[in-house]
Specification:
Strand 7 and strand 8 form a beta hairpin. The protein starts with a helix and ends in an 8-residue tail after the last strand. The protein has 269 residues and is α+β, with helices and mostly antiparallel strands. The chain contains six helices and ten strands; from the N terminus they run ααββαββααβββββαβ. Helix 3 (129-147) crosses helix 4. It has a six-stranded antiparallel sheet with strand order 5-10-6-7-8-9. It has a domain at 125-261: endopeptidase fold (from Nostoc punctiforme) (Alpha-Beta Complex). It has helices at 2-17, 21-95, 129-147, 167-175, 187-191, 250-254; strands spanning 101-106, 115-120, 159-160, 164-165, 197-199, 209-212, 222-228, 231-234, 243-246, 256-261.
């Protein structure tokens, strides 16, 4: 009986221990799996957080770049508009020029009063810097041709260095190959040329034609070429040589008619 009781006790102990051992083993096996799952969840959360941070940073950069672009565009538009307005203003100011008038008086006959008429003063010809060189070269060529004839005798109707020159023949020789239009043969025709512009005495430049009325023939019957410093070159009359004369002499002041500009960017070849 004692053995039977011992066996029964051992069997009861086995019955109580069997159902708990696999549970403990299962719990021991489940612990590392749960830890791994928790680690995976934490790592994913960290990666998601880092992704969120990077996306927010990139969004911030994009927004700042967009703001800077808009600021640049606004500043450029602000700077462009006043420039356009200023250019428009300058163009308008350039178009509106004051009109000046001068009085032209005719020489009266004996017993009559002088008659003066108001005429629009011609605007001085403004030459662009790019064209000045061309004009200066043409002026220099004309001056060299004229200076080479100093001392040669006056010859009525002459137009070449071999035969000599009269006053208009000397001008014809100096300018015939330098300008686009035809140079006429008389001083009066030169004075009335449409291709040239009138010049005031105080604005004379080298190469301008100066005209005189010495014999009462037409508007002008004598012509010379201004060489600067208040002087002009001319072929005066029979028995005299080609020479340089001062405009301030009383004779030439009394008979002075006017001046014309032949050498301009539009007229030279």
């Amino acid at each position: 009986m004692a053995r039977i009781t011992k066996i029964s006790i051992t069997l009861c102990a086995l019955l109580f221990t069997l159902p708990y051992t696999p549970l403990t083993q299962a719990s021991e096996h489940a612990r590392p799996v749960a830890a791994q799952k928790a680690h995976v969840v934490k790592s994913t959360e960290k990666s998601n957080k880092s992704k969120d941070k990077t996306t927010t940073a990139s969004k911030k950069k994009e927004t700042t770049a967009a703001k800077s672009k808009t600021a640049k565009n606004s500043s450029s538009t602000k700077t462009k508009t006043p420039a356009k307005n200023s250019s428009k203003k300058t163009s308008q100011l350039a178009k509106v020029q004051p009109v000046t008038f001068t009085e032209k008086c005719s020489k009266p006959r004996k017993g009559y009063k002088t008659r003066c008429v108001k005429v629009k003063a011609e605007q001085p010809t403004t030459i662009a810097a790019a064209h000045k060189v061309r004009v200066q070269k043409a002026q220099k060529t004309a001056m060299n041709k004229l200076m080479g004839q100093i001392g040669k005798p006056y010859h009525w109707g002459g137009t070449s260095p071999t035969t000599g020159f009269d006053c208009s023949g000397l001008v014809y020789y100096a300018y015939k190959d330098l300008v686009k239009f035809r140079i006429p043969r008389t001083a009066n025709e030169m004075y009335h040329l449409r291709d040239v512009s009138s010049v005031d005495r105080g604005e004379l430049e080298t190469g301008d034609l100066v005209f005189f009325r010495t014999r009462g023939r037409g508007t002008a019957d004598h012509v010379g070429v201004y060489v600067g410093n208040g002087k002009f070159i001319q072929s005066p009359r029979t028995g005299r040589d080609i020479q340089i004369t001062s405009l301030s002499e009383d004779y030439w002041q009394r008979h002075y008619v006017g001046a014309k500009r032949v050498m301009t960017p539009k007229t030279i070849r």
